[in-house]
Write a sequence for this structure.
């Protein structure tokens, strides 16, 4: 089981709580983009987009170059992986738990009552 | 836009079992049953470390032991809702994660169990946050995977 700092995960999930920010992340998963690139498809003002980018940047999900003129936004896969990893890890735990429960339910239902006749076997 | 929106880490999982709903539900709140399945693959859940007090406010404690190296993962939770045989909700006290299990009788001795796991305590879920959960992040995850 992987343990990731809970505060970091919270910040990541908080950032991903908003549909516009999820769309921005999805766009950046295809490659870096400038604020102008990102603003166009969302029909948003630059300050509006900038606000979302600040939240994403604080969460560690994206980084912005300090030097390049248009400060392109870059997705940080590690932060996203941690968030998606939380889901995957828990899905795996429940799936494996349910595999065992399935086997257990079969076992207890197949067991004949104590002192009774053996169950019919086809 | 609210600034303190709850974080919608959410996992939804559904599984159908070939057993009556009453039995499936009892398995989830009975140490003698839990010990057989609570630990995921490669771990076990010794019965002596399972505590179940299945009523709202009651404790639900387990320890998962790694079969390979003996390392342990203790978990303490408190039941939020116990409605036999339909619904079971508990919140982990250390992580604040909430697990809700819904048991649906499909007829013919088949039971569907729906698990919803979120990383916020049930009590902290505002209506806004609950609305946010409908856009579940695991679908988003699947979408992102489809891009790569």
């Amino acid at each position: 089981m992987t343990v990731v700092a809970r505060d970091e995960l919270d910040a990541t999930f908080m950032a991903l709580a908003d549909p516009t920010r999820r769309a921005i992340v999805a766009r950046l998963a295809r490659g870096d983009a400038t604020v102008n690139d990102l603003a166009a498809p969302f029909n948003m003002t630059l300050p509006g987009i900038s606000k979302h980018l600040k939240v994403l940047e604080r969460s560690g999900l994206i980084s912005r170059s300090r030097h390049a003129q248009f400060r392109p936004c870059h997705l940080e896969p590690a932060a996203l992986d941690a968030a998606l990893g939380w889901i995957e890890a828990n899905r795996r735990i429940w799936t494996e738990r349910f595999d065992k429960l399935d086997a257990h339910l079969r076992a207890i239902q197949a067991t004949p009552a104590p002192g009774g006749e053996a169950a019919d076997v086809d | 836009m609210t600034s303190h929106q709850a974080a919608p880490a959410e996992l939804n999982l559904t599984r159908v079992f070939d057993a009556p709903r009453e039995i499936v539900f009892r398995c989830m709140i009975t140490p003698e049953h839990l010990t057989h399945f609570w630990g995921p693959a490669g771990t076990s859940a010794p019965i002596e470390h399972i505590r179940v007090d299945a009523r709202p406010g009651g404790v639900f404690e387990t320890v998962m032991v790694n079969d390979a190296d003996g390392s342990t993962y203790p978990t303490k939770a408190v039941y939020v809702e116990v409605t036999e045989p339909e619904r079971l909700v508990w919140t982990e006290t250390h992580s604040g994660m909430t697990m809700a299990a819904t048991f649906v009788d499909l007829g013919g001795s088949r039971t569907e169990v729906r698990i919803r796991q979120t990383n916020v305590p049930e009590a902290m879920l505002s209506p806004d946050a609950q609305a946010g959960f409908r856009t579940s992040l695991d679908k988003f995850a699947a979408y992102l995977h489809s891009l790569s």
